[in-house]
Amino acid sequence: MNEIKLQPEILKKLREASGYQIEEVAKKLKTSKDKIESVEAGKGHFTLTQIKKLAEIYKRPLAAFFSDSIVELPKITDFRINRDKRIPPSVYLAERRLQYLLDKTKELSGKKSKIPSFPVELRPVELAKVFREILNIDIVKNRKSDEILQYYKKVLEDTFTIVIIEYPLKTEDANDVRGFSICSDLYGVSKIKKCL
């Protein structure tokens, strides 16, 4: 079977941006760790069948493997308690999908967010008070938690011209990432923060 020469740095970036270790990829491709390392070092090549399988594993279009570059997400800040534990591929996929949604929202909205600045020295209690005044709301009580969350989300979206997207994040382990946020001005630079 003919092997195809690809840019080794693109292969490595695609793997890393998908959250996979070399050993995992080798197992899924039914090949050796040495083979993966060799291809990523530019000393070996994959067959088209293997490249298609990689596209499936990494959840990337086949064209990404033949590109000159890949879009890199903003640097990740990890706020988890257990930072030694590896971030699973499902989180990397969720980040890419949410970044795509964010980019499309910017493209389609034609509006700029109106998020005010707050003095850094404000204590949390004072900040909450000022924030409630800006939103012109009181604390909502006597409703189901889902209803309260939806209400506050709508108020935030309407007041600040922002979009809040909830994307399901399934984790295999209780120590995995349970949530993260992507915040961006509709015309600004995205920032990703991970949290437990």
Characterization of this structure:
With 196 residues, the chain is mainly alpha-helical. It has two domains: 3-66, lambda repressor-like DNA-binding domains (434 Repressor (Amino-terminal Domain)), CATH 1.10.260; 76-195, no CATH class. The protein is 44% helix and 9% strand. The protein contains seven helices and five strands. The chain has helices at residues 8-17, 22-29, 33-40, 48-58, 89-109, 124-135, 145-160; strands spanning 3-4, 46-47, 76-78, 179-183, 191-195. It has a three-stranded mixed beta sheet, covered by helices on one side. A two-stranded antiparallel ribbon has the order 1-2. Strand 4 and strand 5 (191-195) form a beta hairpin. Helix 2 (22-29) packs across helix 3 (33-40). The longest helix is centred in the middle third of the chain and has 21 residues, at 89-109. The radius of gyration is 21 Å and the shape is elongated. It starts with a strand and ends with a strand. The model is unreliable at 187-196 (pLDDT under 50).
